[in-house]
Amino acid sequence: MNTALHAQPVTRSTDTTRKSEIRHDWTRDEVAALLALPFPELMYTAQSLHRTYFDPNEVQISTLLSIKTGGCPEDCAYCPQSARHAERQQAERLMSIEKVLDEAKRAKDAGAGRFCMGAAWRSPKDHDLETVCEMIRGVKSLGLESCVTLGMLTAAQSAALKEAGLDYYNHNLDTSEEFYSQIISTRTYQDRLDTLENVREAGIHVCCGGIVGMGEDENDRAGLIMTLANLPQHPESVPINLLIRVAGTPLENAAPIDPITFARVVATARITMPASHVRLAAGRELLSDEAHALVFMAGANSIFCGDKLLTTPNPSEHRDRRLLAQLGMRPATKTH
Ligand code: SAM
Ligand code: DTB
Ligand code: SF4
């Protein structure tokens, strides 16, 4: 055996495992190069950074509730809640505060640390925002972290949510700036960035990510991650959704994405935003136990638990409990 060879220090162009190296100046080529790394090298880099910032055996658990379902005026091609698609989700009214808090208690009992409420709005009306603020106060009084996703927000609306005690606001960029107009025509990428700025300015933690599998190419995936990683402050939470191809939406026949490509996106998000929680969000029903394990190894450290996302199915509590036990992973207790 050539021992001299074994004694050689390994130099890695991607070895960015020191805490001081949080960057906000990624080029698209750099991100594309990470996405295309040999898989073992990509996993090694992602895992090294993951354990520099987090306990790799912990997973943050959120539960989702749709507090206002369907009838949305926006035309997001992936979304079953748009009123513009042929087969659409039945439009419902804003849920009562009491019902929301019952669901929050149930989520807490099932082990969730954060309760996320979603509304199918382009942006909230001020009188609805007051009701949502009451919901946030109620969720906080149960000892849960709170998160809402309500569409576009003004600075004043963001301040009102902060005042109510909101911890996180979810607002996704969804894809690259170039591909965005093929997915949504009723608002611009800049509209999304403006809301993210309002949320950040109000002092609310940002939850912002995207969707993989909408027909985008590698360059678009690199563009999405580059934009997220070059925000003035990284989103504290980065949900990576695997498209759920819902019948009746324009993307119902989009070509499926394989779990290895998905894991590459998660690993690249982990490397470029090492201190952020990267969430394996929608689409877990499409992933085997082995694919879940791969994505956790790639650096995902957050999931949505509960039988339903907003309108579509999610793995059962039983399956998730069994899987986390099998992997020896445990719920994280605190995120900030
Ligand atoms: N109306 C608000 C908005 O658009 O910001 C909040 C709700 S919206 C449903 C939240 C996010 O869910 C979207 O930005 C998108 O990333 C994700 N999403 C919606 N439908 C999806 C699908 N079919 N598959 C994967 N992710 C989806
Ligand atoms: C996010 O990035 N994904 C969640 C949450 N944030 C709001 C929503 C997923 C929705 C999947 C489709 C549905 O259930 O309607
Ligand atoms: Fe409306 Fe949000 Fe669905 Fe777009 S993603 S149609 S804004 S609920």
TrEMBL record:
Pathway: Cofactor biosynthesis; biotin biosynthesis; biotin from 7,8-diaminononanoate: step 2/2
The Radical SAM core domain, residue ranges: 57-284
Compositionally biased tracts (Polar residues): 1-14
Binding site for [2Fe-2S] cluster: 116, 147, 207, 279
Entry GO MF terms: biotin synthase activity
PROSITE patterns referenced in this protein's UniProt entry, alphabetically: RADICAL_SAM (PS51918)
Matching HAMAP family: BioB
Record-given protein name: Biotin synthase
Lineage, uppermost ranks: Bacteria, Pseudomonadati, Pseudomonadota, Alphaproteobacteria, Acetobacterales
